[in-house]
Specification:
Elements (H helix, E strand, L loop, with lengths): L1 E5 L8 E5 L9 E11 L1 H7 L19 E7 L11 E4 L2 E2 L5 H5 L9 E2 L7 E5 L3 E3 L6 H4 L2 H15 L6 E4 L5 H13 L2 E6 L2 H5 L8 E4 L3 H8 L5 E6 L5 H6 L2 E9 L12 H6 L3 E4 L5 H12 L7 E6 L3 H9 L6 E5 L1
Parallel strand pairs: 10-11, 10-13, 11-12, 13-14, 14-15, 16-17
Antiparallel strand pairs: 1-2, 3-4, 3-8, 3-17, 4-5, 5-9, 6-7
Length: 336
């Protein structure tokens, strides 16, 4: 089969379409025909050598978000038949620790992620698949796991409800758009920020209540003074944006952080934190129940994930380049 593999680390030019053997199917796995795979910042960080991926691991097929149809089922798998449309929760967990037994399973100490979606076929764990309706748009469904499951889990951890107000810094990326749409479903008001006023304008159609252009964290902190105090912050940027948004939080408010797009490290005003009884909460991905809930929102029409652009397998490098250059709003997809 054909796959878009990382053959050198550093940037999009290191992606090459190669021929590889089809995946070997384990007894508890399902072989998928890949219809669509989202490109996430996680994939870009792997390509840039920012994680544990080393040259000796190459060629490496990335891609954690996948939607497709069942091609073959393992001998121990029940409940799936050839042709069934499905989407994958890409979390890999041990299945036996106390978090896997009692939940939430995304706390598993051996937590990792599936990789291999940028290919014509993918072998995945059957118990992480979620069935989809026959008439579902598989391209849109492929955007749901990383961005929307993550955003939904963060909103739950922020403990916000209808009528509350949250700040979404860097709102034009995948998690930002997902947060904006899901908050709209919940009746939560959003203050969406971005350094690009042009991209920010597109968020109005996704349910954003306030659009706040800000070129840097200092400007953002100043602009947020007009809206403070807010009930929550959904933060994938980290870096200097953490303290900028912390100052806008109400007493007892919660900031949930899922990424480090701006920088891995943040300095915060500790006095503001403890005198304000504020919470800073880490969050990674979500649970199977979270993704099932998000799929439900999609299938009942409560939200429509925007697909910025699709790229065939031969243009996977271009998809990564567009993400790296921040030329997108929402999600970009590879369609093998």
């Amino acid at each position: 089969m054909r796959a878009a593999a990382f053959t050198t680390l550093g940037g999009p030019s290191g992606i090459e379409v190669i021929d590889v053997e089809s995946p070997t199917l384990g007894p508890d796995q399902v072989l998928l025909t890949v219809r669509a795979a989202s490109v996430n910042r996680h994939d870009l960080l792997y390509l840039e050598g920012d994680f544990r991926l080393k040259e000796e691991h190459l060629p490496f097929i990335s891609g954690v978000d996948v939607a497709g149809t069942v091609r073959e089922v393992g001998e121990s798998v029940n409940g799936f038949e050839r042709g069934d449309p499905v989407v994958l929760n890409p979390m890999l967990t041990c299945g036996s620790c106390r978090y896997c037994r009692d939940g939430p399973e995304n706390h598993c100490r051996e937590y990792s992620l599936f990789h291999g979606a940028f290919a014509e076929q993918a072998a995945v764990e059957a118990d992480r698949l979620i069935p989809l309706s026959d008439d579902v748009d598989l391209e849109a469904a492929a955007t749901l796991p990383v961005a929307y499951m993550t955003a939904w889990h963060m909103l739950r951890r922020a403990d916000v409800d209808a009528g509350d107000t949250i700040v979404v810094p860097g709102a034009t990326g995948g998690v930002g758009v997902a947060t904006t749409q899901l908050a709209d479903v919940m009746g939560v008001h959003t203050i969406c920020t971005s350094s690009s006023a042009a991209k920010l304008e597109q968020l109005a159609s996704f349910g954003a209540d306030h659009l706040l252009p800000a070129d840097d964290a200092e400007e953002l902190a100043t602009e947020l003074e007009a809206f403070a105090p807010v009930d929550g912050v959904i933060n994938h940027l980290a870096g200097e944006f953490t303290d900028a948004c912390l100052s806008a939080l109400d007493r007892g408010g919660r900031m949930v952080i899922c990424g480090r797009t701006a920088d891995q490290y943040s300095e915060i005003d500790a006095q503001d934190l403890f005198l304000g009884h504020k919470h800073v909460v880490g969050s990674t991905m979500g649970t199977q129940a979270d993704l099932e809930r998000v799929v439900g929102f999609y299938e009942d029409g409560s939200l429509t994930p925007p697909v910025h652009k699709t790229y065939d397998l031969d243009r996977t490098g271009r998809a990564f380049a567009d993400m790296k250059n921040r030329d997108v709003v929402g999600n970009v997809l590879v369609t093998p």
